[in-house]
Predict the 3D structure of the following.
Amino acid sequence: MKYRLWVRRMSISAPKMTIKRHMPWPLRAVFLAVVVGLGGAMAMWAYDLGRNNFAGLNPDGMRDQVVALKEQVKKLSAEREQLSTSANAAESQLNIERSAQAQLAGQIKTLVTENNKLKEDLSFFESLLPTNVGVDGITIQRLKAEVVVPNQVRYQLLAIQGEKGRQFVGNLQLSVTVLQGGKSVIINFPEQNATDQARYKLAFKYYQRVEGVLTLPEGATIKAIQARVLERGQMRAQQSVNL
């Protein structure tokens, strides 16, 4: 029996024997931490290597690019401010030119109006060349009168002197024929003691335009008006118009 057991142990069919080495757990933990650290370091090295070599990402180069981009942004901002200032100055100049153009247009319009008025006056004066010159060359031209309200009449006339180089000094007298209370009445302007006699004074070398409004008594119906030019109390010219 013993022989069989010995043969069995020595033969191939004998059971295998395992030898185990005992390692303390603190040493295992340190060994595991070292392995994990080395693995992490290798992973970070591989990441940096791949980022630098394959992805083209370089931290130093990126910092330089950031600095360059900041400088470019600063430069572009300065150019934008300069362009904005230039645009504002151009807009201000444009507004000034528009204002000046509007003023010139207004002045041109005024000059055109004055030119047309001068042409009308020239044509008017050419038509007023004396044809019926009175004593000493004084004449009344273009006497006009119109009723403004029932007791007011607006008048307009032009006194002309045909004699050259002489200063005429005199006064204007107006006589208005009205129908009042069924009777014809003549009212003279200015009245003898009127306070507005200064507006009827005449003093001209060539011509003088006279116009104004006469106020008549209530209920008076205006029929006609006569204008007379007086010099030292003597009549030099006259003209009448019916209404």
Summary: Residues 135-242 form a domain with the Immunoglobulin-like fold (CATH 2.60.40.10).
